[in-house]
Write a structure and sequence with these properties.
Elements: H1 2-12, H2 26-42, H3 47-57, H4 63-73, H5 81-84, H6 88-93
Helix pairs in contact: 1-2, 1-3, 2-3, 3-4
GO molecular function: helicase activity; hydrolase activity
Pfam family, one: UBA_DHX29
Keywords: ATP-binding, Helicase, Hydrolase, Nucleotide-binding
C-alpha cells in the first residue's frame, strides 16, 4: 500500500528537480521517498499527512524538509504528541515575573536578594 502511494507521488511530481537529483534513477528516487515516508511514519505522522508533505515537496523531499513542512503546516492538535507538546505546555501554566535587575546609567548592576519567586524551580530552558 505504501509503495503504491510512493509511486503515485512520483508520478504526480511535476516540479523540476534540483541538479543533485538529476543523477538519481527512478528507482533511487522511489527508494529515497520510501525511506522518508517510513521515517515520518515511525515518528507518528498519519499516511495522509505524510502524503501531503511529500506531494508539496515533490522529489526533493528529505526527512528534514518533510518534517519542517509538517510542523509548519499542520495544526498543533494534528501533530504527533512529541511534536505538539513542546512550548504550548508552558503557555497554559501561567506564572509570575519579577524584576531582579534594574540598572541605571553609570551604575553597577545589582540584584535585590529579597525578590524570589515560587516558579524559579520550574524554569525550563528555551
Amino acid at each position: 500500500e505504501n509503495e503504491n502511494r510512493i509511486r503515485r507521488l512520483l508520478l504526480n511530481s511535476a516540479r523540476p528537480t534540483p541538479a543533485t537529483d538529476d543523477t538519481l534513477t527512478k528507482d533511487q528516487k522511489a527508494k529515497k521517498l520510501k525511506t522518508v515516508y517510513e521515517k515520518l511514519s515511525c515518528e507518528g505522522f498519519t499516511d495522509h499527512h505524510i502524503e501531503l508533505a511529500l506531494s508539496a515537496l515533490k522529489e526533493c523531499a528529505t526527512f528534514e524538509s518533510a518534517l519542517d513542512w509538517l510542523c509548519l503546516n499542520l495544526p498543533g492538535n494534528e501533530l504527533p504528541l512529541k511534536f505538539s507538546s513542546g512550548s504550548s505546555f508552558h503557555y497554559t501554566e501561567g506564572g509570575s515575573v519579577g524584576v531582579i535587575l534594574n540598572q541605571q546609567d553609570n551604575s553597577t548592576p545589582s540584584v535585590d536578594p529579597s525578590i524570589t519567586t515560587k516558579d524559579q524551580a520550574l524554569e525550563s530552558p528555551v
